[in-house]
Design a protein that fits this description.
The chain is α/β, with parallel strands linked by helices and 330 residues long. It has two domains: 142 residues, Quinone Oxidoreductase, Chain A, domain 1 (Alpha-Beta Complex), CATH 3.90.180.10; 140 residues, NAD(P)-binding Rossmann-like Domain (Rossmann fold). The protein is 28% helix and 28% strand. It has nine helices and 16 strands. Strands 3, 5, 6, 7, 8, 15 and 16 form a seven-stranded mixed β-sheet that branches. Helix 1 crosses helix 9, helix 2 crosses helix 3 and helix 2 packs across helix 7. The longest helix is centred in the middle third of the chain and has 23 residues. The protein is globular, with a radius of gyration of 20 Å.
Length: 330
Amino acid sequence: MRNTIKAIVAEETPDGVRGKLQDLGTDQLPAEDVLVDVAYSTINYKDALAVTGKGKICRSFPMVCGIDLAGTVTESSAGDFEPGDKVLANGWGLGEKYWGGLTQQQRLRPEWLVRAPESLSLEQCMAVGTAGYTSMLCIQALQDHGIRPESGPVVVTGATGGVGSIAVMLLARLGYQVAAVTGKADAVAFLTELGANEILPRDELDRRARPLESERWAGAIDSVGSKTLATVLVQTKHSGCVAACGLAGGFDLPSTVMPFILRGVTLAGIDSVLAPQEKRQRAWNALAELINLDKLDQIYSVEPLARVPELAEELIAGRVTGRIVIDVNA
């Protein structure tokens, strides 16, 4: 039985909020029903904002950062889980309102947990992580809207990021024609290998758009927001669907109602944080079937817990490609 654990903890300092590696007593963990020995977590854009203090992510302090985790149940007073169960958690306010996954142990509510797919290791679950789970929610929103491979090309913005890279891989696996948007000139080979049919420079979409432009996309997955999302909307075909899940480029939307009332375009908001359990399980079941493990290996690296503050700065600066899995015990 451990008495102390290591975790990335955000605290308020005279210089602002900062997250750093700390030792915690296990008696400091929240009084929730399920104790999980965490094996892996990740660092996502939201985590980077929390750790660097460059976004108002944490609602209280001290806060253990990390919006997702994968590990093994060691104690449970909830009937749904037993010691030895492999589980994962995404969202639910982890790392924001509740202590999160960048830690060696965590106590969690049973309703926050999903059983890890048997076909994926815990490391692979976190290589997919919140980013892949969000990508799958976006793809299922397009599918539920009736967007099929024969409907036309699907554009993915922020394509070298966590959400974007997995979205490109999954869409290609499903037979869609994929246009990947990136600001990284050296990412062409990476995105082509994942299955992108066309690579577009970021500047082509990150601009002030006209009220309507030529129809190009049957669907879109956007993790950027702002001018990029506005341009995607005015280029979407009649009855198309745009799944919006991020704001890496800004939270504004400088657009008009024209795409909606003249082309019947649907803007589908994707919330991965509070998605109901039914949606979560559907997404993870699909991921377990669709993920190409060889390609997944190409889009993530594994780093130790101690490097999280440094990696957070790299991520905010846009110098990270793909996914970073955190081995919390390394």
